[in-house]
Amino acid sequence: MAQEWLEMAQEIWPLLFSLEAEMALFCYLKLLFERHSLLQKQKRKGVILYWS
Predict the structure, then answer these.
(1) Mean pLDDT, the chain, as a whole number?
(2) For residue range 13-46, what is the model confidence (pLDDT) as tens digits?
C-alpha cells in the first residue's frame, strides 16, 4: 500500500510543480502586461494634458 502511494506521489509531484510554475509564469506575465498597458494609458493622458 505504502509503495503504491509512493509511486503515485512520484508521478504527481512533477505535474504539480510544472502546473505551479506555469501558473506563476502566467500571473507574472499578466502583471507585466497590466503594468505596461497602465503605463501606456498614463502616457496618453500625459500627452493629451500636455497638448490641451
Answers:
(1) 82
(2) 888 888 888 888 898 999 989 988 888 888 777 7
DSSP 1-52: -HHHHHHHHHHHHHHHHHHHHHHHHHHHHHHHHHHHHHHHHHHHHHHHHHH-
Please state whether the predicted TM-score (pTM) of the whole model is above 0.85.
no
Domain that includes residue 41, residue range? 20-52
- Domain membership of residue 44 (yes or no) is yes
Tell me whether residue 30 is in a domain. Answer: yes
- How many structural domains is the chain composed of? 1
Identify the residue whose cell numbers are 506563476: 24
Position 13 in a domain:
no
Percent of the chain with pLDDT over 70: 88
